[in-house]
Amino acid sequence: MGRNRLLGAPYEQQVVTASFTTEPQVDRYIVVTPAGGPNVTVTLDPNAFNGDQVSIIDGAGNAAAHNITIVPSAGQTLDGPSVISADFGELEITFSFGVGNVWLASASGGSGAGTTGATGSTGATGASGATGAGTTGATGVGTTGATGVGTTGATGATGTTVLVQTGWADANAVSTPAVDFIGPIALTVPAGGGEVIYHLDLLVIKDGTPGTLAVQLTHGINVPLYSPAAYTMAAAQQLSVSLSFKSGALSAGADSFSVSATCSAGAATIRGTLLAEIVTN
Fold it and tell me: Torsion-angle region of residue 164: left (phi > 0), alpha (psi -120 to 50) or beta?
């Protein structure tokens, strides 16, 4: 966790697009770079304290082609993996005085993939052999020809994953009625169509009044993607929410998305990110 979490500060995430140095108040960095690069270098906090912790994640899914490299500051060392080279990979890194000013790294992410192409059709059966001639008086019996073996068709092309948009909410207050705290954000479905995959991470802090928080993602013009997620919260409670869901098949063209929330009583403050990707047909 970021150092300020130990002092009671809320969970902090930050979206970055180029090389940077980590800071003690940020718990997680989401690296979002275009498909053409550049490679990103992350320099770890030179003034780290014992127990400081930070996570680095490839939010764009480009790490296999454009690696994210982690390096310690002067006077520090790094033990464990130092390069994110898998799409959507993630490293969690913790600082320790006890083993000699060393950052300890461990991998915790995976990689994305496109859809699998269809299986090719089976080849045709071979022709039967001719009937053989018998001896005089008896009917000859020919040998049946072997069954022909067709060649399996090639595997279809892998679908393409395209980063669409990243929405960001920072200390948005919600109450009643519902408030759009991310979006609406425009997106364009490429030629051939596809589907949108959404990843929503939120930190919610309730005020002094208990109540129920409802979160709803809307796709296009007032088209809810799922029933609102409801969370019963006590006064001053903090809640972390992580959701992933799909839009279903979409035609090519312009579209949009937004995230709204409402509180049944009192108000809540919301921080978080929404990452939207298109998987094309």
Answer: alpha
Alpha-carbon distance 29 to 56, whole Å? 5
Q: Are 119 and 153 in contact (CB under 8 A)?
A: yes
Tokens of 125: 């059966």
Q: Residue 230 corresponds to which amino acid?
A: A
Q: Are strands 268-280 and 194-206 parallel, antiparallel or unpaired?
A: antiparallel
Joined together, the tokens standing for residue 173 give 């207050």
| Lookup result for tokens 């994305």 | 112
Share of the chain above pLDDT 70, in %: 72
Residue from 10, 82, 61 nearest 277 by CA: 61
Contact between residue 65 and residue 161 where contact means Cβ atoms under 8 Å apart: no
The pair of three-digit structure tokens given for residue 12, joined into one six-digit string? 């902090």
Does the pTM of the predicted model rise above 0.85? Answer: no
Q: What is the pLDDT of residues 146-156, one digit of tens each?
A: 776 868 757 64
If one compares 262 and 56, the residue with the highest pLDDT of the two is: 56
Q: What is the CA radius of gyration of the chain?
A: 28
DSSP class of 266: S
240 forms beta bridges with: 203
Whether the predicted pLDDT of 43 surpasses 90: yes
